[in-house]
Amino acid sequence: ALIFEDLFNVKDIDAEGKKFEKVSRLQCRSEAYDMDLLLDVNVQVFPVDLNDRLSLALSRTLSREDVPDTGVYQPALGTSLLDDYEYVMHGKVYKYEEDKTSTTPKIAVYVSFGGLLMCLKGDVRNLSSLSKIGVDQRLYLLIRKSS
Predict the structure, then answer these.
(1) Chain segment 80-95, per-residue pLDDT in tens
(2) How far apart are alpha carbons 136 and 92 in whole angstroms?
(3) Which end is more exposed in the chain, N or C (fewer Cβ atoms within 10 Å of the end residue's Cβ)?
(4) What are the backbone dihedrals phi and psi of residue 136, each rounded to the nearest 5 degrees, phi first?
(5) Rg (CA), the chain
(6) pLDDT interval class at 102 (50, 70, 90)
(7) DSSP codes joined into one string, 44-98
(8) Is 124 exposed, middle or buried (0-12, 13-18, 19+ CB in 10 A)?
(9) Closest by Cα among 117, 63, 121, 124 to 93
(10) Distance between CA 46 and CA 143 in Å, rounded?
């Protein structure tokens, strides 16, 4: 059911200054792949500290059996991916950008979660499953702290 999964280290928080009281922009670096992540998080709901290690996953559905999502939350779903994560957002892919200046092809995927933004940049090969998802497609972002 997961189309992307990796561990990220929080390298900076609100590097450009705090814009909103309850939201912080995290700058993170991937452990397994050569990727950068910018992510807005409601820190009142999910507090994050510098150097925290986050397990991040992206999925089209919350179902463990990969049952397509209807777009409407169904609390009677039974066990789902929600049970494995501490912080979940539902959003929409709104832009892809190719970095043609790099020696290896890189792509940036932009997703909006009701105004909280994510930009995941990395090698096209590592984001191949994401690059197949079209603009306006919906995704779940699932995060938990990892030791």
Answers:
(1) 888 999 999 999 999 9
(2) 6
(3) C
(4) 80, 0
(5) 15
(6) confident
(7) TTS---TT-EEEEEEES-S-TT-PPP-SS--GGG-S-GGGG-SEEEEEEEEEEEE
(8) middle
(9) 117
(10) 9
Torsion of CA 133, 139, 144, 147, to 10 degrees: 0
Q: Nearest CA to 86 among 117, 118, 42?
A: 42
Q: Is 90 exceeded by the pLDDT of residue 26? A: yes
Q: Other CB atoms closer than 10 Å to residue 134's CB: what's the count?
A: 8
pLDDT at position 30 is: 95
Assess whether pLDDT exceeds 90 at residue 48.
yes
Cα separation, 59 vs 63, whole angstroms: 9
Length of the chain: 147
pLDDT at 77 over 70: no
Decide the pairing of beta strands 116-123 and 53-59.
unpaired
Query: Which residue's entry shows tokens 């991937």?
Result: 30
